[in-house]
Design goal:
Largest sheet: 9 strands, mixed
Number of strands: 18
CATH class of the largest domain: Alpha Beta
Helix content: 40-55%
CATH architecture of the largest domain: 2-Layer Sandwich
Structural class: alpha+beta
Bound molecules: adenosine-5'-diphosphate, magnesium ion
Oligomer: single chain
Radius of gyration: 28 Å
Length: 692
């Protein structure tokens, strides 16, 4: 590393340090106020900030600027504008005004809006989010922005995330006031652990499915997969190490606190975890991390795969969303604390999260629903699709031993809050099968797919907890002595007990037990998505102002369409691969076998040639069956176009995906019989073990 970490970290970010150095004290203070209090910037401040930002960016080699935003595609978008302008003498000068900083008007008609915006009013607008610092990427000053329609409807993932943070702040602050906690803001904090695969670019380029779908659609298992667990935490290979060094440096320059890196369970699989940050910044940073992983990989002749299930038979990639809520005075509200008052506060917030997750399990499931993630959830490598909360035995017992019945009441009142049970921090989670585990001082939502934006999951966590806290505050504002708080904790914990599960989430017994408890088991994306617009969820999300009903309807339809289109692209890719390459290869090779069989029979008429006969029979069967399945698939793909959005997704799930699975089995069977020299695509062994 050329520079030391201190000068490197954040060197491409227009952060507090740069603001302080380049703005007048007055402007700096006004900007800070606007940031912390979420106020609008006045014109004078905006102009001054714009000039300072532009001068700083130009001094670092930037020639363009862009409003960087997160449309519903799930990836980030940017449209670059040059700083260039002509002055009255016709000379090119650098220009960038406060107006350009604060607001952009991209022609956004090609972004999914789910019907929120018709083409005649295609222009959306982007608005600067000053809580996320501007940064330089590829000679372009990137300004993090929210993206809305002209009448203020959210067309992106940042807007509702900011709304959810604001409502969580508002409701949690009511509780802070009741508890007498010194704080002026409450902020959700997130640390997302990101898994990914790294494979060789040359191998990648030969796989149509990887290029078009980001995952393999065919491939027989490699003789060695992840059976030996020798990759997990194993020594990092030199080529991967070089990639990681450059990745870290690039992320650090952007102020992204990448911290932990290690090999994961599957061959060629790795993980990167940053230090946690405020939810909004963590979301921006995770989007950037995913983008930069892919870019840096290419520079090393590698390809970074972020698909949830790139290879059958080995673990797919997910993302763990570590989530907590903290005050601006540094108190983690999910940490147990030391004093009895802190214990009581902890149990109150813990109970709020439990209630929120129980009431809105389906929204949490929706927030991680994508076509890719359907292959992981419930497949014994990632948590089940059933949402539950893991607390660990000790904490569960402690929570339920908060008691105020007649027998204990006197005792409790005598002792005051000191009777709130304590638990040992370190005894919590090492149960990796839980979708939502309490891990000492935070919750870890482990259901996200590796390519998911973390925005959706955090919108749902923040919103559901905020709505529960609102109810708690309503109740406690009528009288918030310790007795009332304990009563509330006890009542709510008991009412929502069914969501707590400390056992093995992968087991079949849990599926049955969860059904008995009345928990949702929304196995696939088409099963889950309609819950986004279920009445109870619409009521909650609209009442706290995170979404309007129209925005929810739009999101639901965008997500359904995304599921359908992703699956149909995969189905069509399969058809093409089978027709153009697999069948000709298998047919050609079986012809060779047939010729050799005939020759041998002629040479040795009394001998049997079992090997050739069996191979020929099997391959002939594969050819016939595959052809039949491809035809069926083509018909179904055609038929699907007659279905509407929601029923189309269901149709694909019920009819198309099962045929894709059957087709895959046939082709993979042939792969085990054909020599590598005739096989048209690199094998799993070549892909997974290609990087040395
Ligand atoms: P692991 O889950 O692998 O045991 P850690 O628990 O140390 O690892 O941390 C995983 C992630 O959780 C990291 O990104 C870390 O910054 C984040 N994290 C730690 N504490 C908190 C917290 N209070 N709130 C949110 N995220 C946190
Ligand atoms: Mg973890």
């Amino acid at each position: 590393m050329a520079e030391n970490l201190e000068s490197l970290f954040g060197s491409d970010v227009f952060d507090r340090r740069v603001m302080k150095a380049t703005l007048s004290t007055e402007i700096y203070q006004k900007l800070q106020e606007a940031i912390t209090q979420g106020q609008e910037l006045d014109k004078e401040v905006a102009n001054a900030v714009a000039v300072a930002m532009k001068n700083w960016a130009v001094s670092k080699g930037a020639t363009h600027f862009t409003h960087w935003f997160q449309p519903m595609t799930g990836v980030t978008a940017e449209k670059h504008d040059g700083f260039i302008a002509f002055n009255d003498k016709g000379l090119a000068i650098n220009e960038f005004s406060g107006k350009e900083l604060i607001k952009g008007e991209p022609d956004a008609s090609s972004f999914p809006s789910g019907g929120l915006r018709s083409t005649f009013e295609a222009r959306g607008y982007t608005a600067w989010d000053p809580t996320s610092y501007a940064f330089i990427k590829d000679n372009t000053l990137c300004i993090p922005t929210a993206f809305c329609s002209f009448d203020g409807k959210a067309l992106d993932k940042k807007t509702p995330l900011l709304r959810s943070m604001s409502v969580l702040n508002k409701q949690a602050m009511r509780i802070m006031k009741l508890l007498g906690v010194k704080a002026s803001r409450v902020i959700p904090c997130v640390g997302p652990e990101q898994e990914y695969f790294l494979i060789d670019k040359e191998v990648y380029k030969q796989r149509e499915d990887l290029i078009l779908c980001g995952r393999t659609l065919f491939g027989a298992p490699s003789p060695k997969g992840q059976q030996l667990d020798d990759h997990y935490f194993g020594a990092i290979k030199p080529r991967v190490q070089k990639f990681m060094i450059e990745l870290n440096e690039t992320l650090w320059r952007l102020g992204i606190p990448a911290k932990t890196e290690h090999n994961e369970v599957a061959p060629a699989q790795h993980e990167l975890a940053p230090i946690y940050e405020s939810c909004n910044i963590a979301t921006d940073h995770n989007q950037l991390t995913m983008e930069i992983m892919q870019k840096v990989a290419r520079k090393h002749d590698l390809v970074c795969l972020l698909a949830e299930k790139p290879f059958a038979g080995v673990n797919g990639s997910g993302k763990h969303n570590n989530w907590s809520i903290a005050t601006d005075t540094g108190i983690n509200l999910l940490a147990r604390g030391k004093t009895p008052e802190e214990h009581l506060r902890f149990y109150l917030f813990l109970t709020a999260v439990i209630k929120a997750v129980d009431l809105y399990q389906d929204l949490i499931r929706v927030s991680v629903a994508t076509a890719g993630n359907d292959f992981r959830l419930g497949a014994n490598e990632a948590p089940p699709a059933i949402v539950s909360v893991y607390l660990g035995e000790e904490l569960t017992n402690a929570l339920f031993s908060i008691d105020l019945d007649e027998k204990n009441k006197k005792n409790y009142l005598d002792l005051g809050v000191a009777s709130i049970p304590a638990f040992m921090r370190d005894s919590t989670d090492r149960n990796r099968t839980s979708p939502f585990a309490f891990t000492g001082n935070k919750f870890e939502l482990r259901m996200l797919g590796s390519s998911n934006s973390i925005a959706c999951a955090n919108i749902m966590l923040n919103s559901s907890v905020a709505s529960v806290l609102a109810g708690f505050a309503d109740e406690l504002e009528k009288g918030s002595n310790e007795e009332a708080i304990v009563k509330l904790i006890k009542r709510e914990a008991e009412a929502h007990m069914r969501i707590i599960f400390n056992g093995n989430g992968y087991s079949d017994e849990w599926v049955k037990e969860a059904e008995k408890r009345g928990l949702y088991n929304l196995k696939t994306t088409p099963d889950a998505l309609p819950h986004l617009v279920a009445k109870k969820n619409v009521d909650m999300l609209t009442s706290i102002g995170v979404f309007s009903e129209e925005e929810l309807q739009a999101r639901c339809s965008i997500l359904l369409e995304n599921y359908s289109e992703t699956s149909l692209i995969e189905a069509r890719t399969m058809v093409e691969m089978v027709n153009k390459n697999y069948l000709p290869a298998i047919s050609g090779y079986s012809n060779e076998v047939a010729t050799s069989l005939l020759n041998k029979k002629e040479a040795l008429p009394n001998m049997k040639f079992k090997y050739e006969e069996e191979v020929l029979k099997t391959l002939t069967n594969v050819i016939e069956e595959s052809k039949r399945l491809v035809k069926k698939l083509e018909t179904l793909i055609n038929d699907s176009s007659k279905e509407e959005n929601g029923s189309k997704a269901m149709f694909i799930k019920d009819y198309i995906i099962p045929v894709m699975n059957e087709l895959r089995i046939k082709i993979d069977e042939a792969e085990t019989l054909c020599p590598e020299t005739v096989w048209p695509y690199p094998s799993y062994r070549e892909i997974l073990f290609s990087v040395l």
